[in-house]
């Protein structure tokens, strides 16, 4: 009897979790095809493809999708190039001013992005990176790099340095140590960094608008004006497009990571 109650409770909890996760997507899907859906109707009274027609007729959509994907992937690469050595140093090394550096690394996610963006805008103008995709890629490091460093630092602390030291004592080169020891052990953290960095990057509107100056068009740039409007079906369609792009690229990263892990 007790086992039956436990099994029933587990199935109920699991069902509620699945429904809770899928319900927002189902509502967005129905909203994007709804022609008339008013409270307190449980389902739309009629359906239409108007919202998706508006989305795909946007002349900047495909360019925005391409630019968003490229910028997101470049942000991931730069996060790894900067975050891996920084996370390792903070995890394994002791040096003067370490706590201060850790605090400074957190500031970009504690200070409002608009305040940081305005300050960096003048710097980007002087360096000639304003109104250019390079400037947008670099500005996206501001909200992503602090998370990357913290995640990778935690990953390094969890695996410790003894495995790497053992490999070096056996004569392995630094690259071999990273490829055969560090990367497989750090894989969960690396996967989390790729997902989080990409999601944060593609959702940036304020920083992209400031540094890009309206010349760099990402999906967020054409999405947010619809959010401020009252056309809910079009907003729902754009939201689903965001979700599909994110899931597709994350699945691609997952496939690449798994393949590289198998080769190790």
Structure summarized in a few sentences:
This protein has twelve helices and two strands; from the N terminus they run H-E-E-H-H-H-H-H-H-H-H-H-H-H.
Protein described:
The protein is mainly alpha-helical and 264 residues long. The protein has helices spanning 2-33, 50-56, 61-92, 98-110, 113-127, 133-139, 141-159, 162-169, 174-202, 206-212, 219-227, 232-263, and strands spanning 34-36, 46-47. The chain is globular and about 70 Å long. It is built from twelve helices and two strands. Helix 1 (2-33) packs across helix 12 (232-263). 80% of the residues lie in helices and 2% in strands. Strands 1-2 form a two-stranded antiparallel ribbon. The chain folds into two domains: 2-48, no CATH class; 59-263, MetI-like (MetI-like fold).
């Amino acid at each position: 009897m007790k086992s039956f109650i436990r099994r029933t409770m587990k199935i109920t909890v699991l069902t509620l979790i699945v429904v809770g996760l899928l319900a927002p997507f189902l509502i967005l899907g129905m909203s994007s095809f709804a022609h008339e859906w008013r409270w307190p109707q449980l389902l739309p009274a009629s359906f239409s493809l108007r919202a998706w027609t508006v989305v795909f007729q946007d002349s900047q959509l495909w360019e925005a999708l391409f630019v968003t994907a490229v910028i997101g992937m470049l942000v991931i690469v730069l996060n790894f190039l900067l975050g891996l050595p920084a996370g390792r140093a903070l995890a394994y090394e002791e040096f003067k001013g370490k706590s201060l550096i850790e605090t400074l690394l957190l500031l970009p996610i504690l200070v409002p992005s608009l305040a940081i963006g305005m300050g960096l805008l003048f710097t980007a103008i002087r360096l000639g990176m304003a109104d250019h995709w390079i400037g947008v890629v670099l500005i996206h490091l501001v909200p992503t790099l602090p998370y990357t460093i913290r995640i990778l630092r935690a990953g390094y602390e969890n695996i410790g340095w003894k495995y790497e030291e053992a490999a070096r004592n056996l004569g392995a080169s630094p690259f071999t140590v990273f490829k055969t020891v560090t990367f497989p052990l750090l894989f969960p953290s690396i996967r989390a960094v790729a997902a989080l960095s990409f999601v944060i990057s593609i959702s940036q509107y304020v920083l992209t608008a400031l540094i890009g100056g309206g010349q760099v068009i990402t999906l967020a740039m054409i999405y947010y004006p619809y959010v401020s409007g009252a056309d809910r079906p079009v907003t729902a369609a754009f939201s689903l497009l965001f979700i599909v792009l994110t899931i597709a690229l994350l699945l691609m990263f997952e496939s690449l990571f798994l393949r590289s892990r198998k080769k190790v």
